[in-house]
Amino acid sequence: MDDEILQEFLAESWENLAKLDTEIVALEKDPQNEDLISSIFRTIHTIKGTCGFIGLTELGSVAHSAENVLGKMRSADLAITPAAISLVLQAVDVIKELLEELEATGEEPKMDNSSLIKQLDVLAESGVVGDAGIPVSQPEPNVSAPHVVEDVAVEDVAVEDPVDVQPEEAVIAPTEIQPPTDVVTSP
After folding, report:
1. CATH number at residue 13
2. Which of 16, 70, 92, 144 is close enough to 41 for a disulfide, judged by CB 3.0 to 4.6 Å?
């Protein structure tokens, strides 16, 4: 790998990542800010593209999966939530680790980032974060769907504050209105 190109890549990446940290913190406070998400996307996209150009496959794979998540956020196909941002931050931290090792040795480090890449890919495809399958955003309730209740015996239903109604207090609504029978009309 050409040392001059590598040094240029490292300098540009560190500069972009310094700006990225500030932007991600700002995005957490203002998740609807389209300019911020676009800038974050472009930064990761630039790192990914340069990795492909100079042959940094491991670093490029992490950046690529993070870029996919950010692309979904940018197109509003994925909610910008704390859980999603946290996963993107994990990717940024791994990118920094890879860059530090690359800078120290001149060689791309061999790290197993398959779990992080898988989580990012699952997030981008399904909106689910982590191995626990935690949804990034809660789905909107389907108001038109009927609520189905399984067969439940009355004795299985607990009532915390039963209302004490005496039979004489019970009100029975008439099923049909009857005209009064004792009305006298004058001729």
Report:
1. 1.20.120.160
2. 70
Chain segment 107-165, per-residue pLDDT in tens = 999 999 999 999 999 999 998 876 444 444 433 333 333 333 344 444 444 444 444 44
Cα 10 from Cα 96, distance rounded (Å): 10
Cα separation, 21 vs 27, in Å, equals: 10
Domain range enclosing 86: 3-135
What span, in angstroms and rounded, lies between the C-alpha atoms of 53 and 12? 14
Tell me the pLDDT tens digit for each residue of 5-61. Answer: 889 999 999 999 999 989 998 999 999 999 999 999 999 999 999 999 999 999 999
What does the chain come to in residues? 187
Q: What sign has the CA pseudo-torsion 141, 146, 152, 154?
A: positive
Q: What value does the CA radius of gyration of the chain take, rounded to a whole number of Å?
A: 31
Question: Is the whole model's pTM more than 0.85, yes or no?
Answer: no
24 in any annotated domain = yes
The verdict on residue 179 lying in a domain is: no
In DSSP notation, 60-78 reads: HHHHHHHHHHHHHHHTTSS
